[in-house]
Design a protein that fits this description.
heterodimer, A: alpha/beta, 6-stranded mixed sheet, 5-stranded antiparallel sheet, 37% helix, 29% strand, B: mainly alpha, 8 helices, flat
Chain lengths: 252, 214
Amino acid sequence: MNKIKAQNIWKKFNKLEVLKGIDLEVNEGEVVAVIGPSGGGKSTLLRCLNKLETIDRGTVVIDGEELCHETSAGTEYVNKNDIRRIACKMGMVFQQFNLFPHMTVLENLIEAPVNVQKRDKAEVIKEAEILLSKVGLSDKRDEYPRKLSGGQQQRVAIARALAMKPAIMLFDEPTSSLDPELTGEVLKAMRELAEEKMTMVVVTHEMGFAKEVATKVVFMADGRVQEQGTPAEIFGNPKNERLKAFLNVILK
Amino acid sequence: MDYVFKIVPQMLDGCFVSFQVFLITIVLSIPLGILLSLGRVSGSQILQKIIGFYVWIMRGTPLMLQIFFVYFVLPSVGIRLPDFESALVAFVLNYAAYFCEIFRSGIQAIPKGQYEAAHTLGMNYLQTMRRIILPQVIRIILPPISNETITLVKDTSLVYVLAMNDLMRTARNLVQRDFNITPFIVAAVFYLIATLILTVLFERLEKHFSRYEQ
């Protein structure tokens, strides 16, 4: 079953066309790595899936529910409450972590499950503690984010997203603002998540991750999907000229 | 010293008037300022313009002029308020404009990523503001709020223009009656004590609200 189905997505910022008719399908349990040069529209595409950006034209269906559908005028979104409900089916991990600095690690995790999903607090805390131990941060439960390293903050951000029990996880360059020695711990947490068959879309510059963990790789440049396929196809037998040039530069 | 003890009860009466003006102004102008600031950062261009104009008028003219305006000009359009209420209306409207600007700057200092994280966690506007944005804004705005509050302590003396017997006017009356400047010194001490209390209070608040920054 399709977890994400995006069709003919167009998006422009002022005069600049960033997405020019993108199609993306993600099946349950798939790990999709989106790669490509900076400014190619990768992050924008991800942000359009949960309406952090509003698209100009196209259809987005998340977990069987329509977020917006293409019309002759461009696109029509569902109502605000449904947008919110659909958007939080997807956990999102940002490049800048975006933890809530005034809350402890545990408070960051339980805030939305308790106050948005209205779940039982004691139960949520129990689950949050399990999630923290999974990302190896049980001992940081009562620390404020400021006290943590970048890698630790990003692992908390992953746990916070998972606490919502999302159907899909979106990662927007999750290791790009980390020191090189800290990327490993975050990639490890993501790898474990992939092994549990979480459906994931990962915008990344980590070619190792795309090669080893992804089940599908999407190469984007100039606002278009230039080529997509299995890691073996993309890295072993690239056909698109832009992709060949990109791999030449990045794998040297 | 005997003279000081003799005038203290009268001066305390004056303090009480000043304190009332201070407290009511704070209690009303801060929430009004928050509301105005939310309008000022909202998506509505018209609302932004109107509030911007309001802030310009309120910050661009002397508070004393505004007090006169409420007291002398509004009655000509049928709004007639007693002395105390007139002064309060002017104070609240004036201070709300300043608080609006303080809150606006605080809200705009919060990174966009905080709103985005809240969105991806399914929070609506009210939840985002109340749980995520405003608690962080408080830490940022406490120093300017403290400033403004201390200014207000001294601005309360402006009510003397409406012949209200606040601390300042009481002191001046005593000086003129007794040909002795001691009441001015006593008044200065009272203002200083009030300011000291506020300084300590705000220091504590700042410490409390920045505990996550340590």
